[in-house]
Known about the structure:
The chain is α/β, with parallel strands linked by helices. It has 2 domains: 2-173, 3-Layer(aba) Sandwich (Rossmann fold), CATH 3.40.50.620; 186-278, Pantoate-beta-alanine ligase, C-terminal domain (Pantoate--beta-alanine Ligase, Chain: A,domain 2, 2-Layer Sandwich). It is built from 10 helices and 9 strands. β5, α7 and β6 (169-173) form a beta-alpha-beta unit. α6 crosses α7 (151-163). The structure holds pantoate. Pantoate is lined by residues 28-30, 58, 61, 128, 131-132, 150, 153.
Amino acid sequence: MRICKKINEVREEIRKIKKENKMIGFVPTMGYLHKGHISLIRKAKIECDYTVVSIFVNPTQFGPNEDFERYPRDIERDIKILKNEKVDLLFNPDTQEMYKEDFKTWVYVDEYSDILEGKFRPGHFKGVCTVVLKLFNIIQPDKAYFGLKDAQQLIIVKKMVDDLNVPVEIVECETVREKDGLAVSSRNIYLSKEEREKSICLYKALKKMEDLIKNKKIYESKILIEEGKKIIEKEKNVELQYLEIVKISNLKRIEKVEKDVIILGAIKIGNVRLIDNIVISML
Ligand code: PAF
């Protein structure tokens, strides 16, 4: 596996690969790789000829009081995993390589970025879109793989790619879950044993809402959200940040559930924020 820390080195390698007409698959990550990332990498390996993974903990998507400094990092372990998965190239730049001192240009998807996660993490999606577009410009992938676990991120990146005519296909991949249903996330390691037990309440709430829609034919968002909230509020020391039902195409809230909606939620347990969602494609 080739490891590049510099943009110029990546560009040189990509030029060679493009000359060979190989299809490039790209998995952007912030490292501390887990089962979720591995499933994206495996999908890229199946669908493409050359797989690039980036590991970059992007400072611009963290707010001043967020966990940038303590975000888990273990590059040696990650490199072992990537070699094992037979990834072709790892791009692992440092912050100065990605953001020069006089960096001034930002990408912002209007309306989609200040709701749901964006309300609790102001500026987060501006940082995400900016770094993702930079990575696309550096790596020039044919396909890029994103997990549905970060559904709002996925929908916003798709919108950015569409609006700005970025020549890449965004491939969405199912959320990988632990046995009890908890969505796999790098942040799960912060949870104490007791918090880990409580953490499942968000998934339980989402499943309850899905059940009410599919089996009890209850479609009023207000009723569904109340039922979901009840499950989360039963857990002590769990703060519900939001639980909303929106259209998957534009993230707009809806009063009555219809086809292609997504239920998104976020909770905070101690210092750990967890997000999850469930897609309702059929009624
Ligand atoms: O999902 C992530 O890990 C990050 O938001 C991403 C897409 C790598 C951008 O920094």
